[in-house]
Amino acid sequence: KSFHVVAVVGSLRKDSYNRALLKEAIRAAPEGVTIDVFDQLADMPFFNQDQEDIETPAAALAFKEAIRKADGMLVVTPEYNSGLPAVLKNAIDWASRGTPSVFKNLAVGIMGTSPGALGTSKVQQQLKQSLSGLGAYPLAAPDFVLPLYKSQFDDEMKLNDPKTVTRITKYLDRLRELGLCLNAIRPKL
Ligand code: FNR
């Protein structure tokens, strides 16, 4: 049976480097790991508990369902002002609702790329904190950051360095390892 990952990108822009990184992750996925992109983050209004009481938006329900059905999650995100892009945090807030949460005991991989030297390391810490608070298990190590993105991608937005591709494959293997352990204790939702 294959290990099924639901993936989201924290950037909405068309030429996003982080989206390009996710595409490369899909190509680099180890045998038996499949990645499906959930692409409706922008369809969720700002989280509002009043609205939640009336009707949860369709995109938020779809996100929860995609997480519920997946064996693990992959978040590929840029860093905005040393933290989380609002659209990503908003989606997490919507999907976090319910008891138990779909995030409980969920394995989550985090990847990101940036033009600077730290390669999204600060947003990754913030994301780990949020996810841990939800009872999810962000992969503790290794971290996957890709700094200095201008030198990492070619004109077709493919990765230049085969070692980076290998690093992605290994990272996704670790995510699967963690996810397979955790799936035994995920709530049956
Ligand atoms: C940024 N950028 C950025 N980069 C970074 O490494 N640390 C940061 O704190 C920030 N802050 C920040 C804030 C805002 C509002 C924007 C729009 C951008 C630069 C960012 O990494 C760059 O725009 C990336 O290209 C965004 O990722 P995508 O869209 O290419 O995936």
Automatic annotation (TrEMBL):
Lineage top rank: taxon: Bacteria
InterPro entries (alphabetical): Flavoprotein-like_sf (IPR029039), FMN_Rdtase-like_dom (IPR005025), NAD(P)H-dep_reductase (IPR050712)
GO molecular function: FMN binding; oxidoreductase activity
Pfam families on file: FMN_red
Entry-linked SUPFAM superfamilies: Flavoproteins
NADPH-dependent FMN reductase-like domain location: 4-147
Gene3D superfamilies referenced in this protein's UniProt entry, alphabetically: 3.40.50.360
Gene Ontology cellular component terms for the protein in this record: cytosol
Name by which UniProt lists this protein: NADPH-dependent FMN reductase-like domain-containing protein
